[in-house]
Specification:
Elements lengths: L1 E9 L13 E7 L5 E10 L8 E6 L16 E6 L2 E4 L2 E5 L5
Parallel strand pairs: 3-5
Antiparallel strand pairs: 1-2, 1-4, 2-3, 4-5, 6-7
Length: about 100
């Protein structure tokens, strides 16, 4: 599992029928200190995340393990919206404090 921030959406009117009805989000990958990296990924949104939210996502074959993505051709899935995280006892991110 990895951390990312939703920075945009992707709309594809022509796609494999197994992808019909799915929502796609553009994620900027975050490092452990919640700093954005120069890496991006498009992920299927299984939890209703919105632009600006920090999320946890899985990639590879794990991306096809959610109820929404089961047996669908995807390589990344948003599976959680992050409320907070801490490293070494220090709070790195807290959604309630974002503004």
């Amino acid at each position: 599992m990895l951390l990312g921030k939703v920075i945009g959406t992707v709309v594809a009117s022509q796609k494999d029928p197994k992808l019909e009805g799915l929502s796609f989000q553009v994620l900027q990958i975050l490092d452990i200190q919640a700093q954005p990296t120069k890496t991006y990924v498009v992920a299927v949104d299984a939890v209703g995340a919105g632009v600006g939210e920090v999320v946890m996502y899985a990639s590879g074959s794990s991306a096809r393990q959610t109820t929404v993505t089961h047996n669908r051709p995807c390589d990344a899935v948003i599976m959680a919206i992050v409320d907070s995280w801490a490293v070494g006892g220090d709070t790195i991110y807290n959604k309630a404090e974002e503004g």
